Amino acid sequence: MEARIERSVELRAPVARVWRALTDHREFGTWFRVQLEGPFVLGEVTRGAITYPGCEHMRFEARIERMEPERLFAFSWPHPRHIDKERYSSDYSGAPTTRVEFRLEEIAGGTRLTVTESGFEKLSPEHRADALPRNSDGWRIQMQNIERHVAARS
Question: What is the DSSP string of 34-102?
């Protein structure tokens, strides 16, 4: 059975605006709270420093897998076993990955944005027991962050 997270939000912004917030690395960094080193490029890894309070010791790393303009943005990212500052390692080699997909759909008055994170079954049961609820809560927060971001900068 596939372990996954799915969250949707209806944004009062056009699809083109939401797409830009997702795929422009500077805008993504603003609402996601990460200082990225460069733009998102299909097939390449984007890295940066996480600026989210309490996670500043961590690195962001994502391999860009799909960019279908104004429709789908997807990446895979590693799941380090430990995220607490004392045990965290930024060496992600060998770390299991999950896939994050952002799907955009035009609706009356704006855009429905759905984020799905899948592949948690690749994590050990103990790791999954930590990562799944943590990321589920994280996506709830991030959907609120992008909602505020596009509303303020439409």
Answer: EEESS---TTSEEEEEE-STT-TT-EEEEEEEEEETTTEEEEEEE--S--STTT--S--TT--EEEEEE
